[in-house]
Design a protein that fits this description.
This protein has 692 residues and is an alpha+beta fold. It has 6 domains: 2-126, Rossmann fold (3-Layer(aba) Sandwich), CATH 3.40.50.140; 138-183 and 457-566, Topoisomerase I, domain 2, CATH 1.10.460; 189-243 and 380-451, Topoisomerase I, domain 3; 250-374, Topoisomerase I, domain 4, CATH 1.10.290; 567-609, no CATH class; 610-692, no CATH class. A 7-stranded antiparallel sheet has the order 16-11-14-15-10-9-17, covered by helices on one side. A hairpin with a 2-residue loop joins strand 12 (279-281) and strand 13 (284-286). Helix 8 (250-261) packs antiparallel against helix 14 and helix 9 (265-277) crosses helix 15 (475-487). The chain is flat, with a radius of gyration of 33 Å.
Length: 692
């Protein structure tokens, strides 16, 4: 018997048609093992060694799988082709203690007969580097979630369990910062002057970049423009090309489904999963799109040829470039998937499959289809004209743009997405034919009062775009991150825009004060870079975990006074019942409690270590009026309140005024010390004279 194991049972029906009776096809139902909920589950002192147990809700299915794996002649692991899929395959392999000669790892990014049979004909070994990268992420998320989440449970009132996450808290910080930027924004008045011409078009006054007219400047210019005499000083006419953008990646699919279809990231990924796993068409299950978790923008040659055939068939040769268009992605952070998201069958256009799809599925499939077709079409062509006009020595400019050849815009218009505004998608008006030196008739000069606008609130699309651009997290996790922010009541979506709650802001501020690296955008992005190095075999995974956990551990010790892995052996076991002691959180702070609670109610408070005094600053704590001391840890200098442990107030920086005060304090301190040393020296000389 040959055993073929996939992640989702939805794929089994489609795969059974390709594989026949030689294969037993089963699904793992996603992950089969997890780190135990009780205790940390990661031995930090032994190189971040994690303990795993079978997921209880899936244990029956997993036991059956393990039994079949031991009986099978060959075991084909056909989990998804990303790091998580590789890690799931490894968990199955490890739990079953399989012989290596029985194991076959197969990957395919589309569920078609050819792709699946090609994968079976070309199996590979489990990729240890991908496993290590997946393990690194699992352990990091465990350490952060387990160590930090309990610290906030009783600090903030909430009807739902609170959590701190490696990427979700950074996403929250981005939303909080934007909201505060909007609230602190002070609008400023400025003016524009519009000229209307008898020739039937308008022009605006031309200003230097970032220059804005004040009311006084406007009045002075309007006085200068009395009895206006207008002349064309330059006509700049050119043809502009707008090239199609690459086919969808996970992130761009989420962004454009949000902008065009008003779908949430979570809904988009759910529908894409259904299209990938297969839908019933005329009684036959067919997978309609390729794998939907990918950073790649390239297309297989077979797909390019099929798309070009569809373009020629449906639109004609005038829309077809001489050769296929190749796209290159950002190789630095590219995931392991082989292709961009695209349709599988180019003889199944949206209108043919519409009767077999739910309305939501159809809209997303049509979006993916149109994007894939458009990316291989000719550019759109515009005739663009700019007029420079002199009115009484003041320059005005008018711009016009006319679409001359639709090109890819006939299938997929993305202009409003680029500019994040539907207005920008409207074609600019065509200008009348004029020549350089031609005099124009000024019908009216209109001063327009305007106000600066605050930055826009984030939508799901713009937040995902920001996260991807800055290398924060992975596109495949964005949907769950956004869902978590909403479920935890850290943010709400109103009129399709994020607004953070008071709870979200308070939690973000607390994490920023005590664990600044957790919400540091650049540092979080470097963690992703580090995981990429692990996936490519260029860095040991334990180094990657330690580079993040090291600073985190020191911050926990500073706040909590201890970390689990450094407890003495007698502190790790309950003296009353022998069960493991775990870190718990109460209204009076962190403590060690028996893991068998409520059966056993034993608790043990660990005394926090006293901080060293440090250098006095002459600056006093705004919370308790204790003096700040300058201290130093292995990760740099910081300022801490001398009233610790009663007051935990710390700072990384001082204000410019406080810096000046600190320097003055040091000068006074040095002067006193020098005066004391001088007096001591003089006293010593007198004593020496008396002795002699």
């Amino acid at each position: 018997m040959k055993l073929f194991i996939v992640e989702s049972p939805a794929k089994i029906k489609t795969l059974r048609k390709f594989l026949g009776k030689d294969f037993e096809i089963r699904a793992s139902m996603g992950h089969i093992r997890e780190i135990p909920k009780r205790g940390l589950g990661v031995d930090v002192g032994s190189g971040f060694q994690a303990s795993f147990q079978l997921i209880e809700s899936k244990e029956k299915n997993t036991r059956e799988l393990l039994h079949l794996m031991k009986r099978a002649e060959e075991v084909y692991f056909a989990q998804d082709l990303d790091r998580e899929g590789e890690l799931i395959a490894w968990h199955l392999y490890d739990e079953a203690s399989l012989e290596d000669k029985k194991v076959r790892r197969v990957v395919f990014n589309q569920i078609t007969k050819k792709a699946v049979l090609d994968a079976i004909s070309n199996p590979r070994d489990l990729n240890q580097h991908l496993i290590d990268a997946g393990m690194s992420r699992t352990i990091l998320d465990r350490l952060i979630g387990y160590k930090l989440s309990p610290l906030v449970w009783n600090r903030f009132e909430s009807d739902v369990p609170l959590s701190v996450g490696r990427v979700q808290t950074v996403a929250l910080r981005i939303l909080v910062d934007r909201d505060r930027e909007i609230e602190s924004f002070v609008k400023e008045e400025f003016w524009n002057i519009k000229a209307k011409f008898e020739e039937g078009f308008d022009a605006d006054i031309h200003l230097k970049k970032d220059q804005k007219l004040s009311a006084d400047e406007k009045d002075a210019l309007m006085a200068k423009l009395e009895n206006p005499q207008a002349k064309v000083i330059e006509v700049n006419a050119r043809q502009e090309k707008r090239k199609p953008k690459p086919p969808f990646t996970t992130a761009t699919l989420q962004q454009e489904a949000s902008s065009k279809l008003k779908y949430s990231a979570k809904e988009t990924m759910k529908l894409a999963q259904e299209l990938y796993e297969g839908v019933s068409i005329e009684g036959e299950s067919k997978a309609l799109i390729t794998y939907m978790r990918t950073d790649a923008v390239n297309l297989a040659k077979e797909a390019q040829d099929s798309i070009r055939g569809a373009i020629e068939r449906d639109f004609g040769k005038e829309y077809l470039p001489k050769k296929a268009v190749d796209y290159k992605g950002k190789t630095k952070n590219a995931q392991e998937a082989h292709e961009a998201i695209r349709p599988v069958y180019f003889d199944l256009p949206p209108h043919k499959v519409k009767p077999y799809l739910k309305p939501e599925q159809f809209k997303l499939y049509e979006l993916i289809w149109n994007k894939a077709i458009a990316c291989q079409m000719k550019p759109a062509l515009f005739d663009s004209t700019t007029l420079r006009i002199d009115i009484n020595g003041v320059e005005f400019r008018a711009r016009g743009s006319v679409l001359k050849f639709e090109g890819f815009l006939k299938v997929y218009d993305d202009r409003e997405i680029d500019n994040d505004s539907k207005k920008s998608a409207e074609p600019k008006s065509e200008l009348p034919p004029v020549e350089e030196g031609q005099e124009l008739g000024v019908k009216k000069l209109i001063p327009e009062k305007k106000f600066t606008k605050p930055p826009a609130r984030y939508t799901e699309a713009s937040l995902i775009k920001y996260l991807e651009k800055n290398g924060i997290g992975r596109p495949s996790t964005y949907a769950s991150i956004i869902d978590t922010l909403i479920r935890r009541n850290y943010a709400q979506i109103k009129k399709r825009k994020f607004e953070t709650t008071e709870l979200g802001r308070n939690l973000c501020d607390w994490v920023r004060d005590h664990f600044p690296r957790v919400v540091d955008l650049k540092f979080t992005a470097t963690v992703e870079d580090s995981l990429d190095l692990v996936a490519r075999g260029e860095r040991p995974w334990r180094d990657s975990v330690d580079s993040y956990y090291g600073p985190l551990r020191d911050a926990i010790v500073k706040l909590q006074g201890f970390v689990e892995e450094e407890l003495r052996e007698e502190e790790k076991k309950c003296p009353e019942c022998g069960e493991e002691m775990v870190v718990r959180s109460g209204k009076f702070g962190q403590f060690l409690g028996c893991s068998d609670y409520p059966k056993c109610t034993y608790i043990h408070k660990v005394r926090k270590p006293q901080r060293t005094r440090g250098i006095t600053t002459g600056i006093f704590c705004e919370i308790c009026s204790g003096e700040f001391h300058l201290k130093e840890s292995r990760y740099g200098k910081y300022f801490a309140c001398s009233s610790y442990p009663k007051c935990n107030n710390t700072r990384n920086k001082l204000t410019p005024q406080e810096v000046s005060k600190f320097k003055e304090h040091l000068r006074e301190k040095r002067a006193k010390e020098q005066n004391y040393e001088q007096k001591s020296s003089e006293s010593g000389k007198q004593n020496s004279t008396l002795s002699s």
